[in-house]
Write a structure and sequence with these properties.
The chain is built from 8 helices and no strands. By secondary structure, it is mainly alpha-helical. It has one domain. The longest helix is centred in the first third of the chain and has 30 residues. It starts with a helix and ends with a helix.
């Protein structure tokens, strides 16, 4: 049992690392259109994963509450939103295309601030993977291995271009492929760390699984709305981001339903 769980946790991190390795093969950064497409795709995957892999199982786990079955999902969802809001306010970071950093004032370089922004983005993804595998580990009837693996694969797919989006701008500024690759990999390391952390405490939280699943969903959707959608809408109006969102959403929905 633990072997498949370890593999499932590692898959999203592998996606980020392979994407970051693009710095060794690509000569320049992505165009604005490509960046919008990749960001829109990531938004769609995360949104669909939040619904099918997290919120729906959370609601199903609470059916015994009858008409109040929505309550754990709503409470967990809002805790996830507020948790990411707190991290957003307490961590200095810089979003792509932003004119100035957010969070507390610091003397960190822009590259470091961008890395912190991506790290914040990756925290809820790791927690989501950990929450789903915790549910599977402790016998949640609404979460099977195939469904958990679908989430891992979906996040890995959207992490692949994300890793390249991180490493390529860093290479353009520091002219070091090795260092840019390392930073790209490190940005994804928080995902397995977050997943393992959730799993370590899951035995104490098994009775709160609906809250845990919806917490991860709220955290992921906070990232989508606060960071990814604004990024895919930057600059001249284009439908590329929206269409890519639809592709990512459809793909994650297909993975979850087909494998779940």
């Amino acid at each position: 049992m633990y072997g498949p769980i370890a593999a499932g946790i590692a898959i999203p991190f592998l996606g980020t690392s392979l994407g970051a390795a693009g710095v060794f093969f690509m000569k320049k950064d992505f165009s604005d259109h490509v960046q919008k497409a990749l960001t829109g795709f990531a938004s769609g995957v995360m949104t669909a994963a939040s619904i099918w892999s997290l919120l729906i199982p959370a609601l199903d786990d609470s059916k015994s509450l009858g008409k109040l079955s929505f309550l754990p999902a709503v409470i967990g969802f809002w805790i996830g939103i507020l948790f990411l809001l707190m991290i957003d306010k307490l961590t200095p970071h810089l979003h792509r295309f932003a004119d100035s950093p957010e969070g507390p004032k610091s003397h960190l370089k822009d590259n470091t601030l961008m890395l912190l922004a991506v790290t914040i983005h990756n925290i809820p993804e790791g927690m989501a993977v950990g929450a789903v595998y915790a549910g599977m580990l402790y016998g949640d009837k609404n979460i099977g291995f195939s469904a958990a693996m679908a989430l891992s694969i979906g996040i890995a797919i959207q992490n692949f271009p994300e890793g390249a989006i991180i490493s390529m701008p860093l290479y353009a500024s520091n002219n070091s492929r090795n260092k840019s690759f390392l930073y790209g990999v490190l940005s994804g390391a928080v995902e397995p760390a977050g997943a393992v952390l959730v799993l370590l405490f899951s035995s104490f939280l098994i009775g709160l699984m609906p809250y845990l699943l919806s917490f991860a969903a709220g955290a992921m959707l906070y990232v989508v709305v606060e960071e990814l959608i604004p990024e895919m809408s930057q600059g001249e109006h284009s439908n590329i981001g929206v269409l890519s969102f639809a592709v990512g959403f459809s793909l994650m929905m297909i993975l979850d339903v087909a494998l779940g």
